[in-house]
Amino acid sequence: MRFVLVAAAKDIRRRMADPAALSIWIGLPLLLGGLLSFVSSGASEAPPRARVLLVDQDNTALSALFPTAVRQGNTPIDLEEVALDEGRRRIDAGEATALLVIPAGFQDAVVGTGSARLRLVTNPAERVLPAMVRQMLEVVVEGAFYGRQLFSEPLSRIARSPQSGPAPDADVAAIAVDINQRLTELQGVLLPPVITLSVKTGSGSQPLNFGQLFLPGMLFMAFLFIAQGMSVDVWDEKQEGTLRRLLTTPQSAGRLLLGKLVAGIAVASIVACAGLLGAVALFDLAWSRVPVALLWCAYVCGALLAMLTLLHLFARSQRGSEMLSGVVTFPLMMLGGSFFPFEAMPAWMVAVGRWTPNGLGVTRLKDLLYGDVSATAIGLAAVGIGIPAVLAFVLSWRRLRSFANA
Amino acid sequence: MIDVQQLRKQYGDLVAVDDVSFRAEKGSIFGLLGPNGAGKTTTISCISGLLKPTSGRITVSGHDVVTDGPAARRHLGIVPQELALYSDLSAAANLEFWGSAYGVTGEPLRRRVAEVLALIGLADRGKDHTSTFSGGMKRRLNFGCGIVHNPKVLLLDEPTAGVDPQSRVRLLELVREQARAGTTVIYTTHYMEEAQDLCDRIAIVDRGKLLAMGTLDELRRMVGEKDLVRLAGRFDPAAATRALEAVDDVKVLSAAADVLTIATVGASRKLPAIFTTLASAGSDIHETTLSVPSLESLFITLTGRELRE
Fold this sequence. Notes:
The complex is a heterodimer of chains A (406) and B (309).
Chain A: H1 2-16, H2 19-39, E1 50-56, H3 61-71, E2 77-81, H4 84-92, E3 98-102, H5 106-111, E4 119-122, H6 128-150, H7 152-160, H8 169-190, H9 210-231, H10 233-240, H11 242-247, H12 253-283, H13 290-313, H14 318-335, H15 347-353, H16 357-370, H17 375-405
Helix pairs in contact in A: 1-12, 2-9, 7-8, 9-12, 9-13, 9-14, 9-16, 12-13, 13-14, 13-16, 13-17, 16-17
Chain B: E1 2-11, E2 14-24, E3 29-33, H1 40-48, E4 55-60, E5 63-64, H2 69-74, E6 76-79, H3 91-101, H4 106-119, H5 135-147, E7 153-157, H6 165-180, E8 184-189, H7 192-198, E9 201-206, E10 209-214, H8 216-223, E11 227-234, H9 237-244, E12 250-255, E13 259-264, H10 267-280, E14 284-291, H11 295-303
Parallel strand pairs in B: 3-8, 3-9, 6-7, 7-8
Antiparallel strand pairs in B: 1-2, 1-4, 4-5, 9-10, 11-13, 11-14, 12-13
């Protein structure tokens, strides 16, 4: 074990003697992250909201309820009441998401038996937000329909009440009695509810900003660079003659390889530590999540290093091995959520990418940082990544001597 | 002490080392002399455990290198033909690492590193990166890495190849110092002079076979008192060989269309008769070289080829 640490310390010192390579491993993911963040209009911007211009031509108690209803709750809609001319001018100028016109006679249509047509004009330059407004309006209209079916009698009483001045106490009392009776009749149907809606909110349910989404992928991009750079060291040692010399010492090939893994894990841990501390500072990541996340990063980077080392040991030349590892590493980065977060990737790509070693690593790291994940899920992922890594290590061990002599 | 018995290493149909046996005692320098491709490095690789012998047995200080490899390798020090150093580490860091690889640690390691740096003349450059060293300095450090753990057996595979004369002299002196300190040294070279000057016993190898073995005097006696005559020109090999059979005590070692090699006693006196005979056989001689008995002439006697061919 002592020699494993000595060999690892030697490799770390050699890496430190080459700061250019180290800065590329760490700097490139940061640069890409920064660029993507810039392209995506920044990491900390609030989610977009729809601006809806409302023209109320009905001016009744019911039409006045509409903006109140929209403003309640956490809807992503900002409602602004305007005159029809101004509304048309602003929607034509693209200054709003939609223009909603409540026509005169709207209340009569809802409480009576007639009909009214709500008019919604949307901004063609926007796609998602107008669709959200349309859906919300459909829900409101559907609600009005069922309300009219259930409370037709009280509503017709309201419709028949005088248009000016307060309604007589007798009418108000009669309407209240009607509504209460109707609700009593419906109690058997409505209560208890047939469908129980259970809303489970995770502790990390706050929407993630771009920086939070990109951090795990960025870390794993750095780990892939580290694994690629440090695994090619078997070729460097072969070219320098030190690999053959090492194999003439009493130390086993397994210890030599283990030393290289420990060195790679140490470098990855330093990078992961810096990334996670950055997350604590920038994204208010809980300190308690850092140790397990750090262990996970170190573990997966070690596994990636073991797998890439095997790849190098079967290449015929150093140039070939570097090309081969590049051919493997870059698709892994693309698929495994390192270039772009899974949330921004097509579904088919996510389906494939989540099963790559780094994709599995990114997914679980995200869970460890921002969500809830069971020990079983982490354990299964660890086994999924660990089995090929152990196999790669054993094969590398067996291959090393013939690789050195070739 | 090292004992090699009937060592054979075969790659498919190619026999790189064929039934080689030798034994080197404590404090002695044993030379493996032969041209490139003779099987010297393969023999060293088998001893050091890099290659597994096809058959035969090798023991280092009583430990079998195949069945008890780590224990055998613990007693070995290797100075490979090619430099084997970490160019991005300092000289001291290199020595520390190779010492650690043989289990030397702590204060004894630090003391030994300082000793070796002084021994190889790099005491004032210990903290410098190896990449800044000259070729000769790297060679000396390469040697230092092989002795930092005080091995009982030291394997040197052509350690002076490509080294300037000054560094070569220093390296050979370092090898002698190791032997004087009780280390068994196995020294491979294709430089005849090095083998003659340095080695207590020498084995001449060619094409995987051990052709002759003994002290320098024993090997010289094998050649006898015969001088070696090398004639360059144009020959009919068969006719020239037949014609020379008529000249007393002349042995044709090799005959080609452009070179003829002959062994004979008192060659200078016999040259006129040799020239006359060859002229009658239709030969045309352009150049004549005469050498007194040596390892070179023994090698030519044994193989019909020059050592550097």
